[in-house]
Design a protein that fits this description.
It contains eleven helices and eleven strands. It has helices at residues 11-14, 53-71, 89-98, 132-142, 176-192, 207-210, 227-234, 236-265, 281-284, 350-362, 381-391, and strands at residues 32-37, 76-79, 103-110, 121-126, 198-204, 216-223, 305-314, 331-336, 339-347, 369-374, 377-379. The strands form two sheets. It has a six-stranded mixed beta sheet, with helices on both faces. A five-stranded antiparallel beta sheet has the order 8-9-7-10-11, covered by helices on one side. Strand 10 and strand 11 (377-379) form a beta hairpin. Helix 2 (53-71) crosses helix 8, helix 5 packs across helix 8 and helix 7 (227-234) crosses helix 8. It is elongated and about 80 Å long. The termini are far apart.
């Protein structure tokens, strides 16, 4: 193993390790899946008596891809590797993001110290490690970066430092809910189709899931240091059953995801009840009151000009009450073409907006930028500033 020093860092530095807010434009259908066979090449992963994790991961990944190609021809299947080669953790996520993937599945095998009778499959989503066991799994999988030539992509993250994993309690993906839904389906299939002990859906800080901009899960197929489980996972039958379980879970998730989107975009019409009583004539003669356009400040008729900070844009609407926005002040949303854009604050000067932008940067939204509005319409910052000068 290559020996390199990975520097530790303080709590303030942790903020800069947070992933940028999801900016991918997800569509109404699941069209692309990226399948990640964990480890590979010089990184063998966990070792059993007769097999290596990297070999089992790849075999199951390729079988899963074939099942999808055969049964769901409308889905584009992309692999992070199709042979025994080393792929950096940051590049695995980058492959998914470059291809605007709709789902990311990373396949691994679990292990403990020495040989064990512990068995079963579990599925992880990005989140805070709830216990020491989850933290150990994350440390084991993240240790792959020690084999990489540099750690610039991870801001000197130390995979062996418990303190470093504080950052993952601050990192919340817009796709966490969907990731949990997919993970739950995977576990049910592992239990019913592959007859694996169900170790449940877990959360932990996996670097390979950190920067993915789509529903993402990491599966642990079983314990390679359990002799009986290793025999199953290394067998053709076992690999087919695990791949088939993953396929079935993905197919169900795809079907529900697309049905929900179709319903959201085409809600059923509510028919008016027949024989609806007519309003009395005396009520109908009253003219409705005209609403005056709202203005934030100044006298009636003045242009409503303000600045804000945009930190996210997604295709599928997210509730302003979503936990993702918990740490962000005064969040609101506006539509831009087919995108839902999320902004923070309402300011009368660019300087005030710059201060909010700096706050958002410390929360991990490094790409946040200032936007301007006149009477509710998005305009350039220069245009808004010019209009403000006219008012003076």
């Amino acid at each position: 193993m290559i020996q390199r020093k990975i520097f530790g860092f303080g709590v303030l530095a942790l903020f800069f390790l947070m992933p940028q807010f999801i900016m991918a434009q997800k569509g109404e259908k699941i069209q692309t899946i990226v399948i990640d066979a964990g480890h590979g090449g010089k990184d063998c992963g966990a070792l059993g008596k007769r097999s290596m994790e990297k070999t089992i991961n790849l075999a199951v990944a390729l079988k899963l891809g074939n099942y999808i190609k055969e049964n769901l021809p409308d889905v584009n299947v992309i692999y992070t590797r199709q042979e025994d080669v080393f792929v950096e953790l940051s590049e695995r996520a980058a492959i998914a993001n470059r291809n605007n993937a709709d789902v990311f599945i990373s396949i691994h095998c679990n292990s403990t110290e020495g040989f064990t009778t512990v068995s079963g499959a579990e599925t992880y989503v990005m989140g805070e490690s709830k216990n020491e066991a989850n933290l150990k799994v994350a440390k084991m999988e993240n240790a792959a970066i020690l084999l990489e030539d540099n750690t610039d992509a991870y801001d000197n993250f130390d995979p062996n430092s418990t303190e470093a994993y504080i950052l993952f309690s601050l990192s919340q993906s817009l796709y966490q809910k969907q990731s949990l839904q997919l993970a739950d389906k995977v576990q049910k299939q592992f239990d019913t189709k592959a007859d694996r002990h169900d170790r449940g859906v877990q959360q932990a800080g996996f670097l390979v899931l950190w920067k993915t901009s789509m529903p993402s899960i990491l599966v642990e197929l079983g314990f390679i240091n359990n002799e009986k489980e290793e025999q199953f996972l290394a067998s053709e039958k076992g690999q087919k059953l695990m791949a088939l379980s993953l396929y079935q879970a993905f197919a169900e998730f795809k079907q529900e995801y697309e049905a929900d989107n179709q319903l959201a975009n085409n809600p059923p019409e509510v028919s008016k009840p027949k024989d609806q009583p007519k309003a009395p004539k005396e009520q109908a003669t009253e003219k409705p009151k005209e609403e005056k356009p709202a203005v934030a400040q100044g006298e009636s008729g003045e242009k409503d000009i303000y600045f804000s900070v945009q930190f996210a844009a997604v295709k599928k609407k997210v509730s302003l009450k979503d936990p993702t926005f918990k740490k962000i002040k005064k969040v609101s949303m506006y539509r831009s073409k087919n995108m839902y854009c999320y902004i923070s604050g309402r300011f009368s000067t660019v300087a005030q907006a710059e201060a909010r932008k700096a706050e958002l940067s410390t929360l991990g939204y490094a790409d946040a930028f200032i936007v301007a509005f006149i009477n509710g319409e998005r305009v350039s910052v220069k245009q808004a500033e010019a209009e403000l000068k006219k008012k003076k």
